[in-house]
Amino acid sequence: MCTARPGWATVSFRQPLYKKQMQNIKVNLIDILDINEAKQTIRVEPLATMGQITAFLNPLGWTLPVLPELDDLTVGGLIMGVGIETSSHNFGLFQHCCVAYEVVLADGSVVTCSKDENSDLFYALPWSYGTLGFLVSATIQIIPAKKYLKMEYIPVHSKKDMVKVFADETNKGEENMFVEGLVYSENSAVIMLGNMTDTADPEKINPIGYFWKPWFFKHVEEFLESGSAVEYIPLRHYYHRHSRSIFWEIQDIIPFGNHPVFRYLCGWTVPPKISLLKLTQGEATKQLYEKYQIIQDMLVPMKDLGDALKVFHDEIEMYPLWLCPFKLFNLPGMIHPQDASDEMYVDIGAYGAPKTKQYEAKRTTRKLEAYVSRVNGFQMLYADTYMTREEFYDMFDHTLYNKMRDELPFCKQAFPEVYDKINKKVRS
């Protein structure tokens, strides 16, 4: 079994061919169910989106500790897959902000799980990609929100400084609520530090989310020339700063989209929904994307960031790259640090057309996968993976996951393994 949500409706560019061979179950649960301000939690259904949640929570003075930036990302996708944001160096991944799940199992029974109730299932669900049961609600921690985000832009002009400043600012913990890096070349980047505030210098307020504003990554790039600066961004504008340009993939779809004339006259028409782009793609376009585009997020230990950037430069030489730090907690489940202690990791996001002459989708991805596995990192599974089953088991700890597959009634008969849903060769 699998959900009946069509592949074109998801944010991932992957084609879920497995849906054609499985029983499709309708799980059309899109609502925010309730908010408990005393307990500082919100309960939502799996298809509630990040845009929907910020529109609901921010006016009430609340937000999620980890709120991934694209409007259409769903709670279910961020739990069963993975979710990350620039506050993750303090709060961990999206799954680490969840306090309870409600799941329908293969036998039709409804189970609630948390760290204190059915804890094995609670820790096994993240990264399980709907192969243990159907998520029907999640209870998520909320924290107080403020009106603005004070953003400090720090340009750096060498890889050494890039890695040092990024790591140093990340390790300051709560002193920087948000830390992000946009890498524009092998030796240039802008490191961004953000903190929420209710007061702002009126002359430095920049509502970056309006349609006539420059794409955020282009706005940030200007600080490489102008130098360090501070501005104040309305909080919801900050959260969805990469939505209008789908990070920077929109420049390959609408190359003239950041021109001031286009923004003022037609900026309200973009971005096109990712679901619309997928729905209207012909087979030839899909093949071109698979052949000439890379969409990958690789999670590597912070201590290996310098080497990882070199590997990405040698293999794809594509910029910008997205850097997002996160704390990987030593908890049970598919991913955890190698040692028995929390460890700081960084997500390197690569989205676009590689510039290296030797780029070939499968060969290059295999090289990146091998490097990431070698440094005890992880590959986000929303994108194409070419790992063998043995390599996949080496990268992800299946101990608790397999225990749940054995113990949950009819689980193995009803659901495939994660690998059988995400591996490109198996899917085809």
Automatic annotation (TrEMBL):
The keyword Endoplasmic reticulum applies. It is found in: Endoplasmic reticulum membrane; Golgi apparatus membrane. It is a single-pass membrane protein. The keyword NADP applies. Its EC number is 1.3.1.72. Keywords: Cholesterol metabolism, Endoplasmic reticulum, FAD, Flavoprotein, Golgi apparatus, Lipid biosynthesis, Lipid metabolism, Membrane, NADP, Oxidoreductase, Signal, Steroid metabolism, Sterol metabolism, Transmembrane, Transmembrane helix. It is an enzyme of class 1 (oxidoreductase). It comes from the Eukaryota. Pfam families: FAD_binding_4. Its main location: endoplasmic reticulum. Catalyzes the reduction of the delta-24 double bond of sterol intermediates during cholesterol biosynthesis. In addition to its cholesterol-synthesizing activity, can protect cells from oxidative stress by reducing caspase 3 activity during apoptosis induced by oxidative stress. Also protects against amyloid-beta peptide-induced apoptosis. This is Delta(24)-sterol reductase. It comes from Mytilus edulis. The lineage of its organism: Eukaryota, Metazoa, Spiralia, Lophotrochozoa, Mollusca.
